């Protein structure tokens, strides 16, 4: 039987949102540790199942993929010390890589989601992705237009006003070449997060993301 997200995990995040201060957090740190452990167990199950179709994640461990709850407030106007979400990045070279496409799982009351692709990457990699889209637009569109993909995922990312330098503005893929990030997004309701089949349902969505990630990673190269 799959591990599920405990209601207490979302309850902790909700309560932290109201009590985002060090005194409350220190007094209730055990609740955080329990929420983190629950999420870690779920993510480890997800990794194991995703590895069956994407071997790039098979060496990952959830404990190394989950982001810290402590915020870096040095350059932020919001000085609350803790994130009110918990997330994990499943990327071949680890959660901090800026180079490769991967999967992201985000839990937050009323704002949970699954995502894939590349949010930030080096300029040379972004250029390589655009070149792949320009030269093999048919393959890229086949991925985006697959019904099972379109039913659960939406392409997102900020876009340039003009086609980037070095690409023909009349290119049939021009609208996609303007993207600065190549990410796909699947929103989750709290009910879906707490579903007993959360692992199974999540893996189903991530499996749809896999061809998109593979296209991006093949463009970037190893």
From TrEMBL:
InterPro entries: CHP02453, UCP028451. Pfam families: DUF2461. It comes from the Bacteria. NCBIfam families: TIGR02453 family protein. PANTHER family: CHROMOSOME 12, WHOLE GENOME SHOTGUN SEQUENCE, DUF2461 DOMAIN-CONTAINING PROTEIN. This is DUF2461 domain-containing protein. It comes from Epilithonimonas ginsengisoli. The lineage of its organism: Bacteria, Pseudomonadati, Bacteroidota, Flavobacteriia, Flavobacteriales.
């Amino acid at each position: 039987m799959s591990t599920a997200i405990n209601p207490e995990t979302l309850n902790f995040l909700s309560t932290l949102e109201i009590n985002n201060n060090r005194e409350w957090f220190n007094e209730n740190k055990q609740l955080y540790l329990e929420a983190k452990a629950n999420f870690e167990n779920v993510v480890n199950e997800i990794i194991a199942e995703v590895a069956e179709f994407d071997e790039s994640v098979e060496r990952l461990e959830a404990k190394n993929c989950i982001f810290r709850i402590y915020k870096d407030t040095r350059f932020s106007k919001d000085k609350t010390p803790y994130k009110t979400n918990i997330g994990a990045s499943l990327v071949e070279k680890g959660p901090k890589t800026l180079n490769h496409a991967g999967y992201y799982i985000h839990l937050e009351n009323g704002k949970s989601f699954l995502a894939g692709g590349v949010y930030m990457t080096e300029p040379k990699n972004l250029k390589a992705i655009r070149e792949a889209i320009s030269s093999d637009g048919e393959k890229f569109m086949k991925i985006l237009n697959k019904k099972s993909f379109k039913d659960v995922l939406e392409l997102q990312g900020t876009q340039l006003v003009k086609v980037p330098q070095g690409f023909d503005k009349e290119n049939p893929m021009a609208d996609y070449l303007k993207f600065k990030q190549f990410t796909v997004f699947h929103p989750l309701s709290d009910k879906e997060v707490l579903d007993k089949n959360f692992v199974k349902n999540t893996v189903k969505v991530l499996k749809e993301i896999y061809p998109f990630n593979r296209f991006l990673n093949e463009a970037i190269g190893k």
